[in-house]
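Ticket reopened. Same input as before:
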Amino acid sequence: MLSISSNPTGSSSSTTKVLTGNNMNPRVRKAEYAVRGELAIRSEKIKVELANGGSFPFQRVVGCNIGNPQALDQKPITFFRQVASLVEYSDLLKEENRELALKLYASDAIDRAKLLLANIGSVGAYSHSQGIPLIRENVARFISDRDGFPADPSKIFLTQGASAGVQLTLQMIVEHPDVGIMIPIPQYPLYTATLAVLDAKPVPYYLDEAKAWGLTTEELQRSYDEAAKSGVDTRALVIINPGNPTGQCLSEENMREIIEFCRKNRVILLADEVYQTNIYQPEQRPFHSFKKVLKSMGPQYEGFEMISYHSISKGMIGECGRRGGYFECEGLDQSIMDEIYKISSISLCPNVQGQIMVDLMVNPPKKGDPSYALYKQEYDDIYFSLIKRAKKLEDMFNNLEGCTCNSADGAMYLFPQIRLSKKAIAAAEHAGKAPDQFYCMALLEATGVCMVAGSGFGQVEGTAHFRSTFLPQPELFDEFCAGITQFHAGFMDKYRD
Amino acid sequence: MLSISSNPTGSSSSTTKVLTGNNMNPRVRKAEYAVRGELAIRSEKIKVELANGGSFPFQRVVGCNIGNPQALDQKPITFFRQVASLVEYSDLLKEENRELALKLYASDAIDRAKLLLANIGSVGAYSHSQGIPLIRENVARFISDRDGFPADPSKIFLTQGASAGVQLTLQMIVEHPDVGIMIPIPQYPLYTATLAVLDAKPVPYYLDEAKAWGLTTEELQRSYDEAAKSGVDTRALVIINPGNPTGQCLSEENMREIIEFCRKNRVILLADEVYQTNIYQPEQRPFHSFKKVLKSMGPQYEGFEMISYHSISKGMIGECGRRGGYFECEGLDQSIMDEIYKISSISLCPNVQGQIMVDLMVNPPKKGDPSYALYKQEYDDIYFSLIKRAKKLEDMFNNLEGCTCNSADGAMYLFPQIRLSKKAIAAAEHAGKAPDQFYCMALLEATGVCMVAGSGFGQVEGTAHFRSTFLPQPELFDEFCAGITQFHAGFMDKYRD
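Engineering reply: fixed in the latest deploy. New output:
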């Protein structure tokens, strides 16, 4: 045995650990996830130091590295939280407590909690591994109302967030190390991280920054063909729509071309649609689901294989910490559906609290319901504020020296390009960092603003970008923009060639 | 490309799916998880048919296949649920609502909810990927109070249940397909399923049924050496204590031997201790944590590598559906700790509702607190009822023809052996099933009781067992036992040689 012969004395002192960076799972070691990488870790440390009286040139850390609205004080939707509160403590639903409960909770929240508990039993029990049947029925109704085409609850799996769904389904597909999965560049790094762990080949296709992060099937075909030439067996195509980190929103025509590309090349379409309600130009750039576009394309696309993902973490809900979401399977072989069930059952079930929030997402208060007016107001307040903040931040970036930024059709991010001086690039190299990582680290240390460098998402060689959410609090937003502007001017001056 | 050449027309009709059982991930296909396998799937179908007026020789399905207490009407702990309810809807904590809230919630539940929210912010925000710092501090205090040795919050990771922790940490260890992980036989099938997906080698060691499911280091060494001879590089040893499905509880002396075995053979100890409070013979067979035993063994064990797992799903809490737990790392290399953090961060964070229940588990009401009396009463009611039901079911099994059953020192299960007739074995073979699977399926169809066949856990070749929880409702327990007894007599008669 290797492990014995290398250490015949059997000592377990710290210099001869059984498990080390050198003999651990190399696929895990290879995985990178910049959204919570070096910059985020440093920002967490600064937070702790600030709390302990440490001195920094700023009062607070502003986490723009991750779409985490409630961490930046976005108010949760009251109706959703009332239901979440009621299902936890069913004494509140007893008839003898009704009068009291009605002073604290809306009557339709009480009704909804009762209905859910009648179906679920206890929120502390494992549920069906695929998700609570009633909630899957409600998801199916939501999808069919959205798309105008039927959806089947037996094809829907509730998950602990969209990330868990993506990880689970990619795991089904990767047969061997030459299996390729097409991913956009720039991409959300969940994809590259998961493919590294699964030992599969990322097959990159590039979004065209000069054309508002446009996606062409010519580029898809180039990417596919190039991978094929090097022996990669491409099995699936990931589309993030609206885009992350890029925010673009696909046209129906473009989506039809993408579906045709998949059919022709025999790849499964994986549609990450978690930002489907974060749409900021609803007239010019509305959201279309791939399911709807597919179903409108006629019978020759019958049996087309697709998985689409949704989440409670984004939209105007922002219930990230609860970990809830779902995916819908379209056209998958029954044997694969059975295997997805099996692998879900090993983890027993998605957490019930997350499942309940999925129910609320797909079935919010309706006109005429007691909670509707408040729901609508809270929803709209968040929505219109996001539009305003997106535009403000975009304008700010476009006014920075050497910086250009496409506008966001959707999602929660901007992904500006910065052109750094030779001197700055040399300083970054000296510090052992990618230029954009160097810039973002300087920004964090100077302002407390934590963004993610473009190198974490992938970008055209030789360019530099960063991703920022536009989620900081409305009342702090001008201060936030001013801080970045001031830092940027100083940085550019310091490293002027 | 294989996928093209096999289907040059590019058609995607159902006979030529891109993804099939034949080209999916073979490691996933290989995984088996009997706890929610054929029997559980059939029982779910019967439930639906019963609800739709289907006719069966019983009124209800009784799920004894899985430790899911609240699905069988175990009442949740009131204090825990009050806090869970309050943190969801922070309006309840406002001063102007205090008077009202106090009519529905205990004052210490309100205080705890305030404290948690002051630390967490919103329960809808992503938390620290390792888990909320305050809660990790409380876990560390719980461990050090339990063991009398210090624990370090930075070595604790909160998880979405113990299963998620086991999967994550096994994933770290499996470097290549010849890596072996020692597992007990019988075992909880999470382990074989996870090792199949990770493409690692299970290295089985046998528990001795004749000696109350005893575990000897001679057997551990035999297992290790045999694996080594066939080229397996064993890296870790899984111990489930108290045992699942076997319920045995290890003595301190036995645990010292196991630790010494690990040190000598250079394997990491993975201690699954999720049933640590399900202890039914506390005088003769108390629970000792591996952490405590290790720390009492002196300085030559400094740096010993171990991971131990705990959960909110078991004990008297039974909050399975919430998915919460933690693992504590002992002696791991810092590079490994960093990698565990990175891989956790890709999934963003464990769900916050599960984290909060971990806090409540490790920090329940104390003597003198307003909620203490009720908490103590609820806890004891469940505990003493479990002891009673365990004994009743054990006696019932031991009174069945051809059936013997060790008593449970701990956990939630009994794992009786049944000796089936040649005729029954032939009938099982004819039906294409393992004999115990055949028996359990007949039991389900006749009585509505769903158990899991021993073949799903592993057992000595040629023996037959099944696992049953003793969780059915106290008021239905006699009826439940009578149903099994009657079925068994009929089955034995039907297949008498």
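Chain A touches chain B through 114 residues (CB under 8 Å). Residues 372-398 of chain A form the longest helix (27 residues). Please confirm and we'll close it.
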